[in-house]
UniProtKB/TrEMBL annotation:
Top-level division of the source organism's lineage: Bacteria
InterPro entries, per the entry: Bact_solute-bd_prot1 (IPR050490), SBP (IPR006059)
Keywords assigned by UniProt, alphabetized: Signal
Signal peptide from the UniProt entry: 1-21
Pfam families for the chain: SBP_bac_1
Protein name per the record: Sugar ABC transporter substrate-binding protein
Amino acid sequence: MRRRSIFGTSLAVVVAMGLSACGGGDGGDSGSTTLRVTLVNHVWTENIKAALPEFEKQSGLKVEVTQLGEDQLSDQYNVKLNAGSSDIDVMMYRPLQEGKLFAKNKYLADLTDRAKSDSAFEFGDFQAAPVQATTYEDKVVGIPIITEQEVLYYRKDLLEKSGFSAPPKTLDELKAQAAKVEADNPGVAGFVARTGKAAAVTQFSSFLYSFGGDFVDANGKASVNTEQAKQAYAYYGGLLRDHGPENISTDMSWSEAMAIFTQGKAAFYTEANSLYKNATDPAKSKVADTVGFAAFPAGPAGSKPYNIPSWALGVNDASENKDNAWKFIQWAAGKEQSLAQQKAGVPGARASVWANPEATSTYPKDLAEATTVSTANGVGHDRPLVVKVAEAREIVGQPIVDAITGKDSAASADAANEAFQKFLDDESK
């Protein structure tokens, strides 16, 4: 993930629903009527738990949910999956953070035949970009359930004051509008975004793609020093250096950048749409009444924000209850639950749900429109797709910091590319 969970606490909660009537053994035998599901603290999880009685009635299964904070979830997976434990059937996991590690270590069952042969499930309804992140070596190993897209947050009142009738549609316009609004409003930065070396990578990715670059090229080689990548680093860092907050730090994650925006200290802010309520809730934001949302501005290669699955459901390959595990995924990631989740503010990955006006009726209209653009043009990853994600982010994030601080970002990109290629070579051994 690009941030620590803001949902719930890290306290482990075990929900055993109707277990006294289960009579299905210990959950390890094939066809057991007790299904063991491990989920993270999240709004999605709370919604699913509330709907579980319906699933249990329909399926005849009893679902035992273990609910954990992100850190505890990772710790449990590290211990149990590495030991080949069969007492987890369905697992909620982060495709971009640990998906490649899990798939490479064969922790995730191959769901290809189940997903693609299940006509009622309509696997083809899932957007291509999120599916890319839950596929490993052409095998479906997970089903995306929660997505995020990068959009532009902006202050409608400041744009109107500076004579702009619409938010910027291109990155060139973003720079021009940021400069003008900043000049018209002393003490207000034209632009704010994440600046931390690792934290900024995910949000920088949309700039990288929109300039025509990527972290790795089609041949699997490091590509953070291409001309397109160098332009993206220079643009992102330069926009923050020239039009960012005064005395800008280089360790901001989303919470610090969001605080600057919601305190009325910045005109533009690029960030994940999943955090929008921080900006629109009057209890959290001084600018709640004036916030607008727009699609990510187009660069030389067009508007190419990320459209990623932040969480997915997989089946533990060591589970002896795979058939029933798939039944749960069929239901939890099916159209009905996906629609209910999206109406509750949790964006999903089904195209048909996004096309349903009911699904976005609770969202600000301009946010729904901006997100729809992102889902159409989005790229399915927001960081390098590697096993050791944290280490990779440190490497490719260094040129961001150097660009912000006014160092030679092109030389920094060359150095980062060399280090990243060595990293890729080492990881492939």
